[in-house]
Amino acid sequence: MIIVIDGPAGSGKSSSARAIANRLNIQFLDSGALYRAVTWHWVQSQKPEFETFFKILPETELQTEYRDQTFFVSVNNKDITAEIRKHNVAKHVSKIASHPKIREFVNNYMRELVKEDVYVADGRDLGTAVFPDAELKFYMEASIKERAKRRFKELQQSDPGVTLQQVKENLEQRDHSDQTRAADPLKKADDAIVIDTTGKTFEEQIEEMIKIIEEQLKLKH
Ligand code: CDP
């Protein structure tokens, strides 16, 4: 079984999915972390031409684990959980994620993973392209101002050099790229439930989502 949460950068998908996973005692899958991991790998490989990079992809092994409230990601056994959050990765990730070959690589990994357990996953195209038959789909939204403020606050510890303006511009650029790319763009699935988080406290928003999950999944039984 899988519950998916899609939406633009900084809309609160990841923190909501985490809270839901903890409340319902299910697994959490952060699909953006996988795109960030592949991007980190590309940056580490000295930003090769894409055709060259695609050739090393089949030998690239991703490993993930949700533990202690953290989604750990490794590439070829190197833990890069902290590295993938840095601006240097955020700067390139949407360009990397727009390539169908990269998307296929990440999607294959996710589809294999969810066969093994019950998941709540967050991303951009999970309800439309990756898991169109998901049991429940949410689409989260919030104003750009609020999203930038939230992400800036989050980055204070891990990437203190970054400015609010840089964070806002990065979110705007990624939204644009994610919504306009040809391969599986960010889009609300027709059957997704919209959650607008502007002006809501985190607790209010989680309560709203848990209530929907309990009601909807009960209806299906
Ligand atoms: O957390 P935030 O919303 O900043 O982004 P993320 O979930 O870490 O995802 C990083 C980037 O990966 C996004 O801006 C997209 O370009 C890409 N992505 C995607 O294309 N498809 C997904 N299912 C998830 C992420």
Write the layout of secondary structure elements.
Elements: E1 2-6, H1 13-24, E2 27-30, H2 31-44, H3 50-56, E3 62-67, E4 70-75, E5 78-79, H4 87-97, H5 100-114, E6 119-123, H6 126-130, E7 136-141, H7 144-158, H8 164-180, E8 193-196, H9 202-219
Parallel strand pairs: 1-6, 1-7, 2-6, 7-8
Antiparallel strand pairs: 3-4, 4-5
Explain what this protein looks like in three dimensions.
The longest helix has 18 residues, at 202-219. The protein has helices spanning 13-24, 31-44, 50-56, 87-97, 100-114, 126-130, 144-158, 164-180, 202-219; strands at residues 2-6, 27-30, 62-67, 70-75, 78-79, 119-123, 136-141, 193-196. It has a 5-stranded parallel sheet with strand order 2-6-1-7-8. It has a 3-stranded antiparallel sheet with strand order 3-4-5, covered by helices on one side. Helices cover 52% and strands 17% of the residues. It has a single domain (2-210), classed as Rossmann fold, CATH 3.40.50. It is α/β, with parallel strands linked by helices. The protein contains 9 helices and 8 strands. Helix 1 crosses helix 9 (202-219). The protein is globular. Bound molecules: cytidine-5'-diphosphate.
